[in-house]
Amino acid sequence: MEGRKDQRGASAFCSAVLCGFISAAAFIVTAPAFAASPVTIGGPFSLIAPDGSTVTDASFRGKWMLVFFGYTYCPDLCPTSLSEIALALDKLGPDAAKVQPVFITVDPERDTPDVVGQYIGAIDRRIVGLSGSQRQIAAVSEEYGAFSERHSSGASAGDYVVDHSTYIYVMNPQGRFVRGLKAGTPADAIADTLRRLMTRAGQ
Predict the structure, then answer these.
(1) CA dist 141 → 111, 134, 198 (Å)
(2) Which DSSP symbol is given to 103?
(3) Residues 97-127 pLDDT 10s
(4) Is the entire prediction scored with pTM above 0.85?
(5) Which residues on adjacent β-strands are paired with residue 56?
(6) What are the angstrom distances between the C-alpha of 12 and each of 5, 8, 76, 150?
(7) Positive or negative CA dihedral for 91, 130, 103, 10?
(8) Are 131 and 137 in contact (CB under 8 A)?
């Protein structure tokens, strides 16, 4: 546990300010706020849940998805964003049942399914945490246009931090991209956005 704290300290340069300027390659922030975007973001994926089961994009059909890419060693932006998502679910009340937040690691080498499960469990069990092989993570990252890049932060191979995309991808119940939110968006804004999308969709 001490080593983990040391690693997080070493990764302090990947702050919310730095990560906030990293953009996903295919992401267009000027997409209409409440209309489906013509941009192709998202698609089929197959990943591993904490219990070892295989989860695909089809597993979440019928729900609004909030997809966020990050990693468990992230010092501040990831836990902050996930906590705001959890608070947004509380603010949605009964409508939270229509929403499925999904956290996908960009660091599968350290973030095994079990590690991701423990991490998400400490934040909110309503969020689904997913990991997989390097190939699986690369494939889903490409589908979403999500960027990640490893940087060494120490002498050993395990001393590194990961710069990564900082968007929450909002997907409709049919699995199509609707819009993006910046990581760290306050819970009230997330909840309000989802309510408007649901209203326009007649839900």
Answers:
(1) 15, 10, 26
(2) E
(3) 999 999 999 999 999 999 999 999 999 999 9
(4) no
(5) 46
(6) 11, 7, 8, 14
(7) positive
(8) yes
Of 183, 158, 155, 163, give the one whose Cα is nearest residue 13: 163
Q: Which two tokens stand for residue 93?
A: 């009340």
pLDDT digits 0-9 by tens, 46-84: 999 999 999 999 999 999 999 999 999 998 899 999 999
Does residue 25 sit in helix, strand or coil?
Answer: coil
Q: What is the gyration radius of the CA atoms in the chain, in angstroms?
A: 16
Cα(34)–Cα(200) distance, integer angstroms = 8
Among 31, 29, 28, 55, smallest CA distance to 44 is for 55
Q: How far apart are CA 159 and CA 152, in angstroms?
A: 6
Token pair for 100: 């499925």
Structure tokens at 28: 């267009």
Which pair of structure tokens corresponds to residue 190?
């997330």
Query: What residue spans of the chain are helical by DSSP H?
Result: 2-10, 16-19, 77-92, 113-121, 134-144, 187-200
Report residue 43 as tokens: 């698609």
